[in-house]
Structure formats: C-alpha cells, structure tokens
Design goal:
about 350 residues, alpha+beta, Aminopeptidase, Elongation Factor Tu (Ef-tu), domain 3, 2 domains, 17 strands, globular
C-alpha cells in the first residue's frame, strides 16, 4: 500500500460512531501535525486552521468524523446484548455481522444474532427481522456469565467491524465507515497541500461530530468558525447497482460530485456555477449530482448565523450505512484537487461577488 492507502486503512478501521469520534480526531491531528493550529468546539468537532496570505475570507471544509453504529441497551439474563441503532440502518444489513463493543475495561467482539429460524413462529420465518428482535452474541455459554465477566453497560458504543481491502480492481477500496471518513481524508489531504502553497484566505479544515444523528456538529462548528464559504465533503449514493438509478451519473470512477441538490440544501447558484466552471477550467473529472434522500452538513452550515455560502461535494460510494462500502481512488484525488483549486481562487473579491444578486 502507498501512504494514502495506509492512512485510509487507519482512518476507516478506527472505531468512531456518533458521539465517540475522539479516535478519528486523534488520527487527523497526528496527520496534520506541524501544518495547522487546532481548536475544538464544545460539541467536540475538530477545527484545523491554516492561514494563507490573509485572514479573510474564511473557507471551511467539513467532513463528518462519525460513522453509523449501535449503542448498548441492555444485557439480557441469558447474556445477550440488546442494542439500539445510532444513525440509519436497514435491518437486512445487520444480521450475522461482526461488531466491537467499547467498554470501560476494553474491547469486546461479538456477532449479531437472532433466534434460530426453527424456533420462530411460522409466519415470521423467511421475513426480514426488526432490529429490536436481534441481539449481539459476545460468547455467553453455560460456564461463562457475561454479566459477571464483562463490564458491558447501557450506553457503551458498538462499532461495525470490517478490514480495509484493496480490491482486484486496484483503484477500488472496500472498508467500513467510508461514510464519512472519505470526507475527513479529503479535508486532511487538502489541508496538507494548502500548507505548501499560497492561498488568499484562511483555510478551516473541520472534522464534525454527530452528523449521522442530525447534523449536530455542523451547527456548532459553523457557529464557531463563522465561515464565508463552506464545503461539506461527504459521500453520495452510487447509482450503478440497479433499481431506480439507471442513467444517473453518481458512479465510482466518475470523479468528484458537485452536488446541486439535497433535501437539506439548495446551494447558492453563483457558488454552484463557480465550482462547475472551476472544475471545467482545471480539467478535474466531475459530475453534477443530486442526493434524493436525506441531507448533509452543508444544509446545517448554510443556515448558520445570517446564512453561509455552502456547497455539498460528494464521492460516490456503494452500500453506505452497512458494515462495508466501496469507493474509487480517482474520485478521492479529484475531490482533493477541486478543494485545493477552490482555495486558490476564493479571494475576497471573488467571495464578495458570489454574494451579489
């Protein structure tokens, strides 16, 4: 693996569901050591700052550090762990998957289980089970009392387990938590490159928290930074796996997505057109995409204060909100290039022009 792939492995394999993102933040700080100043808001979002040739305008790149997961609800008398979802989950993606529970005394590995099919009522056999019917098996047996031996408490975070893998197509990467460690990686790489060049603004690279449970960190981070322009770096749903996505451009290998609509954001049209023209001028592979379900940090940042010029920049990912998802290396590189070029171009005069009507 090259250096980027090694960092991707570390960043995706670290455990960090919503509300428990500290491990991810520590990796970002280590990666950007010596290139940025660091601050934190009161919710825990990490704010990395690199001053260019001027203090203003402030340009913010935000990638949310959290991933979907679960939280312990209770340990049953039989020694199985009942859990609640943190973020959006389809039950069909959960059964028989490995997970890790982070307790005060250490890490406990388990597997999501269900009652044996032959022990179910006939009307339930063959039907998709609900999350509340599932449990986590952490190794209970007649001679091992989970409640006595393991310090598992309600509120302990539960993270999906999946190793980073380079696929047979060497540009395709399979891992957990691409939603949204890829956005964090884009931000970190762009900040490293910006530290080596002149840019007519101050760059704020932000790792936000708790996006998967309501875009919470984006609200507090935007209030802290008060940016002039903000980019939310996130995944978008790949549309090349069948269903209703036929003909859509959101595909791995299609480049960086300049997202023109999601349910939380209608981007400023001048900023939208500026980013499209910039990608065309610099010959950065891109597509114009939409997110037809859900929202992003951009929508929450957009409404901060009296309003922030905001865009959502997307990377097509397959199978998000599951234990494993897939992205394309070239799309990551295109997104980093677009962010660097945007910082080089967004001087005060340009930003002021985007605010005019």
């Amino acid at each position: 693996m090259d250096g980027t792939e090694k960092l991707m492995k570390k960043m995706t394999e670290v455990e960090g569901i919503s509300g428990f993102e500290q491990g991810v933040a520590n990796l970002v700080k280590d990666e950007l050591k010596g290139t940025c100043e660091y601050e934190r808001d009161n919710l825990g979002s990490l704010i990395c700052i690199h001053k260019g040739t001027t203090n203003s305008p402030k340009i913010m790149m935000a990638g949310h550090m959290d991933e979907v997961g679960f939280i312990v609800q209770q340990v049953t008398d039989e020694g199985f762990v009942k859990f609640l979802p943190v973020g959006g989950w389809w039950p069909g993606n959960v059964l028989a998957q490995k997970v890790a529970i982070q307790t005060r005394k250490g890490r406990v590995v388990g597997v999501v289980g269900s009652p044996a099919i032959h022990d179910m009522d006939k009307e339930k056999q063959g039907k998709l089970m609900k999350l509340k019917e599932l449990f986590i098996d952490v190794g209970q047996s007649v001679d091992f009392d989970v409640k006595k031996e393991l310090d598992i408490r309600p509120g302990d975070p539960i993270t999906p387990l999946c190793d980073f893998e380079i696929m047979s197509n060497p540009k395709m990467y399979m891992a957990k938590a691409w939603d949204n460690r890829i956005g964090v990686l884009i931000m970190a790489e762009a900040m490293k490159r910006l530290a080596k060049i002149k840019h007519p603004n101050t760059a704020y690279g932000v790792g936000t928290v708790q996006e998967e449970v309501g875009l919470r960190g984006a609200k507090t981070a935007a209030a802290y930074v008060k940016p002039d322009v903000a980019f939310a770096l996130d995944v978008c749903t790949a549309k090349d796996t069948g269903g209703n996505g036929k003909g859509r451009p959101e595909k791995p290998g299609a480049g960086v997505g300049i997202m023109v609509f999601d349910n939380s954001l209608l981007p400023n049209t001048k900023l939208r057109d500026f980013m499209i023209a910039l990608a065309e001028k610099k010959k950065i592979k891109h597509f114009l995409g939409v997110l037809d379900g859900g929202g992003t940090d951009a929508g929450r940042i957009n409404l901060s204060g009296t309003g922030i010029l905001s865009m959502y920049i997307g990377i097509a990912a397959r199978y998000i909100h599951s234990h494993v998802s897939v992205i394309h290396r070239d799309d990551f590189e295109a997104a980093v290039s677009l962010m660097v070029e945007a910082h080089k171009a967004l001087d005060k005069k340009t930003v002021d022009s985007l605010r005019t009507f």
